[in-house]
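Q: Hi! First time doing this. I have a protein sequence and I read that you can turn it into a structure. Is that right? Here it is:
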Amino acid sequence: MQEDYCKSAILGNEKYKGDALLQKSFTYDYLQKKRKKNEGEVTQYYIKDHHPAIIDPETFDYVQEELKRRQKRK
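A: Yes, that's right. Below is the predicted 3D structure, encoded as structure tokens:
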């Protein structure tokens, strides 16, 4: 079970293809250090080719499409 979670976390993380999505979450109460997942409240920035890729972008994008296809079947 944990192994499946790790695989899906790797397959869904844009950092493995060399890109970076900034501000996935943000601190809404800095005094109490409370963070919240960003659901459009704060601007997100997507940076392509931010760092060297572990997985080539074509393979990563193919896997994303396959995951979407499999998710629709359920």
